[in-house]
Amino acid sequence: MSLLIEDRNRVRTLTLDRPDALNAFNEALYDATTDALRAAADDPGVAVVLLTGNGRAFSAGTDLLEMHARATDPGFVPGRHGFVGLLDALVDLPKPLVCAVNGVGLGIGATVLGFADLAFMSTTARLKCPFTSLGVAPEAASSYLLPRLVGRQDAAWALLSAEWITAAEALEMGLVWRVCEPDDLLPEARRHAEVLAARPISSLVAVKRTMTEPLRAGIDAARQRENAAFAELMGGPANLEALTAFAEGREPDFTSLPPGW
Predict the structure, then answer these.
(1) CATH code (residue 6)
(2) Fewer CB within 10 Å of terminal CB in the chain, N or C?
(3) Residue 62 forms part of a structural domain
(4) pLDDT digits over 116-151, tens only?
(5) Is there a domain that residue 239 lies in?
């Protein structure tokens, strides 16, 4: 099982559990997490969802080996929900989402914070939005949510540079709410989640709805723009060079690509 589920004091903790793969999302993990978020949304005994990772990573994002197979193998069979299904579940989650970033977060392991109502991060964790280093476009409505969360220039740096963001930088720019020592991270995240979970679920849902409903149209439009750009770039020269370099264990070389790429 690639996802651990635990209930305590009306908090449902979802722990990404592919530590050998740095909790990267393969199709099975996308499906399991989507199902778990939908189940939590529908469960009247769950007030808050806490998302974290097992091992030294929060999530390394989409599994690049599967991404390479998707781009090159006509026989690749996707999961039931996939990346799109996970995003739908995050957008539709009516209850507070608390993220505890325990380690490395790349791609969706970073952009998921745009959907977090509270985000905690270990002092030893790092985040990266690696889109330009993969020759693709932003995802998860990050082109809309990140500028709202951290401001245009911090968002531009995160999305354009594909450079690492430290915990201190994430806190300073407002990408996370609290930074904790590694051993304190999960207890602190759980303590705050349980404070929320002690409130009436109906009120929690109402507060979150009134905060997020004005963003729905912007999120939907951003996802459409990102999907179009991603489809245009996926499998293109830059993306194939990046994925091939990853499979070969080397750094990509974008300097020899055709003009415009």
Answers:
(1) 3.90.226.10
(2) N
(3) yes
(4) 999 999 999 999 999 999 999 999 999 999 999 999
(5) yes
Domain range for 128: 1-182+201-261
pLDDT at 45 over 80: yes
Q: How far is Cα 23 from Cα 109, in angstroms, rounded to an integer?
A: 9
Residue 188 lies in a domain: no
Tell me, letter by letter, the H, E, C secondary structure of 157-224: HHHHHCCCEEHHHHHHHCCCCEEECHHHHHHHHHHHHHHHHCCCHHHHHHHHHHHHHHHHHHHHHHHH
Is 123 contained in some domain?
yes
What amino acid occupies position 63?
Answer: D
Helix (H, G, I), strand (E, B) or coil at 14: strand
28-52 average pLDDT score: 98
The rounded Cα 105 to chain-centroid distance in angstroms is 8
Looking at the structure of the chain, the number of domains it has is 1
Q: How many helices (H) and strands (E) does the chain have?
A: 11, 10
pLDDT digits (tens, 9 = 90+) for 167-176: 999 999 999 9
